[in-house]
Design brief:
This protein is of the alpha+beta class and about 110 residues long. Helices cover about 35% and strands about 20% of the residues. It has a four-stranded mixed β-sheet with strand order 1-2-4-3, sandwiched between helices.
Length: about 110
């Protein structure tokens, strides 16, 4: 994922978690909130409940790679947080892509 698409500030992530709209499935939670920019920014989060540092970093890499094909299709002007769930560790990459695509469609950020 290009660095220009990344959302890094913990204050902004906290604001999006509190005020955003949440969509979930067994693998991933997606929280979205419109922003004032014309750019879409994405943060990928994995909490300690996912596992140790190695498992959390692997999950974050998987989620970034799975979200990459959809970056150009996502409507501009949104901040998005993608949160890994513990089941993500044992899942194939294709299922992660499907999960993210389904959540983006459910949140109406991309069109099918």
């Amino acid at each position: 994922m290009k660095r220009s698409f990344r959302l890094k500030s913990s204050e902004e992530i906290k604001r999006i978690r509190q005020a955003g709209v949440s969509y979930s499935n067994p693998l991933v939670v997606l929280i979205t909130l419109p922003n004032q920019n014309l750019q879409t920014r994405i943060a990928v989060v994995a909490s300690r409940s996912v596992g140790g540092a190695v498992q959390r970093n692997r999950c974050k890499r998987l989620l970034r790679a799975a979200a990459e094909p959809f970056l150009e299709k996502i409507q501009t002007g949104n901040d998005i947080i993608i949160i890994a769930r513990s089941r993500l560790i044992d899942v194939e990459f294709e299922k992660v892509i499907q999960a993210i695509e389904n959540l983006l469609e459910k949140s109406k950020l991309i069109r099918t």
